[in-house]
Amino acid sequence: MARRKDDDSKGDPRAPKPPRPQGSRERDMGVVRRRPDDPRKRLPSELEAFARGDDDALWRRERSRGRVNDPRPVAATLVPGVANRDARIVCDARIKRLRSAIDAGDEYVLAEELADAVRLGVWRGHKIVDFDVFAEAVLGLGIDRARALAQQGAAALDVPCEIADEQTVALWMRAESGLLEHAPESRVSLRGGRLVLEVPFARAAEALSGVGRRAAPLAKPQGGPDVVVDRPKGVPPLSRLIERDRPRDDE
User: Fold this and answer.
1) Mind giving me the DSSP string for 106-118?
2) From start to end residue, where is composition biased (Basic and acidic residues) (predicted)?
3) How does pLDDT run along the chain (251 residues), one tens digit per residue?
4) Residue 76: exposure state from Cβ atoms within 10 A (0-12, 13-18, ≥19)
5) 3-class state of residue 7 by DSSP
6) Is 227 helix (H, G, I), strand (E, B) or coil?
7) How many whole angstroms separate alpha carbon 115 and alpha carbon 135?
8) 193: Cα separation from own chain's centroid
9) 53 vs 42: CA distance, rounded Å
C-alpha cells in the first residue's frame, strides 16, 4: 500500500525531532541523582542491633504493663493468669452474693456487687459471652437495669465500670479463690487501691495460706527489668544457628 506524502519522515532515523515545548526538560534515564537531604531509610532498631551481634535483639520486647505471662492457649483460658478452677470458684461465689442482694431488694449492695462483677469480668468463669448475657440469663435482671446499677455502683466506688487490667484481675481472683477454698463466706474487695480481705478469724490461717500460695507466682522483684526476651524455650541464639549452618571449606 502506498504511503501518503506526509508520512515520508516516519521511521527515518535521520528525520529531525520535533521541537520540545518551551520550559520542558529532558530527563536522562541513565542517571539517578539522589538529593543530599534525602536520607536513606534506616533498618528497624532490632535488626541493627542484631547486625551488631546482639543475638536476642529479635526476641527482645518491652514488658507489657498490666498484662500477665500466661503460657496457656487462649482457647483453654477462662481468665488470664487465673486457674480455671479458681475462676469458677469466684464466679460461683459472686453469683450467690448477687442473687442474695436481688432477693433482699438491696439495690445499694447490688449496685456495688455488679460493679465488682464488671471489674472482674466474673462471667468468664462460666464461659459466658458478656455482662449482658450474664445479667439476663444468670441473674434474671433486665439488661438496661443491670447496666444502670453497675454504673451506679462504679460511680459510688469511684472506679471505671469496665474490666480491670489482667494483673489486677488475676491477683484479685487468686486472693478470693484462696479464701473461698477454706471459708465459703469469705470475700475480697478492691477499695481505694487497697485489697480488702474478709475472712472468719477461725479459718484465717488456712485461708491466708491459700492466698499466699496463689499470689506468689505473681510476685516479681522490685525494680525488675522493663524489657524481656521472648526467645522460645529450647531455641538457641541465632548466631549459633548461623554458625551451625555456615558452609565449611572441607565439605
Assistant:
1) -HHHHHHHHHHHH
2) 1-15, 23-45, 241-251
3) 555 555 555 556 566 666 666 655 555 555 555 555 555 667 777 677 777 777 676 666 555 556 777 777 777 889 999 999 999 999 999 999 999 999 999 999 999 999 999 999 999 999 999 999 999 999 999 999 999 999 999 999 999 999 999 999 999 999 999 999 999 999 999 999 999 999 999 999 999 999 999 998 888 654 455 555 555 556 676 667 667 777 776 65
4) exposed
5) helix
6) strand
7) 12
8) 22
9) 18
